[in-house]
Every structure is written in C-alpha cells, then in structure tokens.
Design brief:
By secondary structure, the protein is α+β, with helices and mostly antiparallel strands. It is built from four helices and eight strands.
C-alpha cells in the first residue's frame, strides 16, 4: 500500500522574527490588521492565505473577522511545523516538493558528505547532506 505524502505548504510561511513575535500574542481577539501589525506581515495575507487555509476565526454581526491570538499561534505552529524527509528523499526547489532520490553520487567537500542527483520530475540538480566529518 502506498503511503500518502503530507503536503508542504509554502504560502504564508513566517520568517524567524515573525515566528518569535507569535509568542507575544495574547488570549484576546485581534482584527486582521492588528494581527498583521503584531506579527509583522501584510493585512491582506490574512484574507488571501490564512482564512482559505482554515485559520480559526469568528465573525461578528457586521461580518468583521476576529482572530484569537493564542488560537492563531497554535494553528500556525501546527500547520507549518517542520516536515522530516526520509533518507531516500530530497526537497526540489523547482518543483517545491520532496522527491525520491535516484542514482545518487556521493561527494565530499570541506568535511561535508552529501549526495548529488537529478530531480526525476524537472531534471534540476539537487543535493542532500548526509553527514559531517570532523577534521
């Protein structure tokens, strides 16, 4: 039976400083513009990315969106958690998804052992670090 591969979502990913600001969100309701100011992204990102992906939110009687800070933080950390690739997979930067490694060539440079192969879908050359040899 073939395992279903978990999809890696790239839209709406936060950088390091934005992830650090998530910890400062409180247990209160934020409007999309307040949330964007607190975390450090554009207001339209809430409407274009997070709401369609299933961000937990409420609407008031005037149809305005309100987002709880702690619920948003937990949702983002769960949705964008680090995905572990198997030993036989590498991430293709052109296809934007993990692909199987075929015919790898092992190379070493500056104490770093890595595999070099081509993506089976697009043909792009990619590498995966295997180990580091201390000098």
């Amino acid at each position: 039976m073939k395992e279903k591969q978990e999809e890696i979502i790239l839209k709406g990913r936060l950088n390091g400083s934005q992830r650090n600001r998530l910890a400062k969100l409180m247990n209160m309701m934020y409007s999309p513009s307040e949330l964007a100011d607190e975390v450090g992204f554009e207001r339209r990102q809430v409407y274009r990315v997070y709401i369609p992906l299933g961000c937990p939110h409420d609407r008031d009687k005037h149809n305005r969106i309100w987002i709880n800070g702690i619920d948003f933080r937990n949702w983002v950390m769960d949705l964008y958690r680090k995905k572990e690739l198997s030993i036989k997979e590498a991430f293709c930067l052109t296809c934007k998804k993990p692909v199987k490694i075929y015919n790898p060539v092992e190379k070493m440079k500056n104490g770093l052992v890595f595999l070099v192969c081509a993506c089976p879908l697009c043909g792009r050359k990619k590498s995966k670090i295997v180990s580091r040899v201390k000098k």
